[in-house]
Write a sequence for this structure.
């Protein structure tokens, strides 16, 4: 199975993996699927994924923070204090769960992000974002699949996500990755004492 720290994706697949010293689950005669039974996860290094080469790596604060903040401000247009990019990053780093990833186009260019969370039963995906100039190139799929593998490895039995009102068109993207709309009413409560007001 591909290492959870770095996912390498390209058209030829196996050759690039060997050059990076990463395992190729597709292998000779392989089918690009790792695991067995209900935990089978499609391996995006398999050659059928014809997308440009790029990397999904663990978030590193010193190297990635500025670009992540810029992408989130561009994509999400935050309007409330509890969704401040800097606050969200700080809170995520405090829990040290290793479930924050970025997609790179080249060695230093951050073009996408995803956060995942796990409570011991269900997992969640948050803050999936791809820079507008780099969309429709496979980065979103790569980020979701990388986060899924990390959650599956921890024993997660179900992965949830929420789509903001007004962004319903993205549902088709998630459906293509196996997600389905469920009859739920989402409720939330902000904890003011833990929100750093600007």
């Amino acid at each position: 199975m591909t290492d959870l720290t770095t996912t390498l994706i390209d058209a030829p697949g196996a050759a690039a993996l060997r050059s990076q010293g990463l395992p190729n689950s597709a292998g000779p005669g392989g089918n690009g699927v790792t695991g067995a039974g209900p935990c089978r996860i499609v391996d995006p290094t398999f050659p059928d994924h014809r997308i440009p080469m790029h990397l999904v790596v663990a978030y590193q604060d010193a190297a990635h923070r500025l670009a992540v903040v810029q992408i989130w401000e561009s994509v999400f247009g935050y309007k409330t204090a509890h969704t401040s990019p800097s606050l969200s990053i700080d809170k995520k780093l405090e829990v040290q769960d290793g479930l924050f990833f970025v997609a790179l186009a080249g060695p230093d260019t951050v073009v996408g992000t995803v956060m995942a969370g796990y409570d011991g039963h269900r997992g969640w995906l948050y803050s999936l974002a791809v820079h507008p100039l780099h969309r429709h190139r496979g980065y979103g799929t790569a980020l979701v699949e990388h986060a899924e593998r990390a959650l599956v490895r921890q024993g997660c039995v179900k992965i949830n996500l929420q789509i903001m009102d007004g962004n319903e068109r993205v549902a088709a993207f998630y459906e293509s990755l196996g997600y389905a709309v469920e009859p739920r009413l989402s409720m939330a409560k902000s904890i003011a004492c833990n929100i750093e007001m600007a």
Notes: The chain is about 30% helix and 20% strand. Residues 6-194 form a domain with the Aminopeptidase fold (CATH 3.40.630.30).
